[in-house]
Design goal:
By secondary structure, this protein is mainly alpha-helical. It has one domain: Nucleotidyltransferases  domain 2 (Four Helix Bundle (Hemerythrin (Met), subunit A)), CATH 1.20.120. The protein is built from 5 helices and no strands.
Length: 131
Amino acid sequence: MKNSTNGWIFFAENDMMMAESATGEPRLTGQVIFHSQQAIEKYLKSYLVEKNVYFPKTHDLPTLYELVKKITDCNIDEIMLEQISNIYTATRYPNNIGLLPGAQVPTVEKSKEVYDFAKNLERLIKKELGV
């Protein structure tokens, strides 16, 4: 595996560890979904890097997944992927981080759902990469 692929995976795993450590904590639901979104993005990019697929500088998960699907279809819930993609924020101001669209604070249940989705994608991408 390429060093650059390993780098993307390393940082995706770090995001997953952060999300997992906060899962179930009502005060940290925003951090769970934020780090889960970040991990998904990095796992998709790791796959594309390994397969020598150019991707634009984007944080849009459906755009990245469309490129992945040209090689392999991980058969993931694309509606959920779109919802998670909307969690990304270009700003780091506290009132924007980890909020759902409409500036809603996620519930513990929703944060677990997003984390579980990220965990499933992690397994799929690692399997595709032979990790």
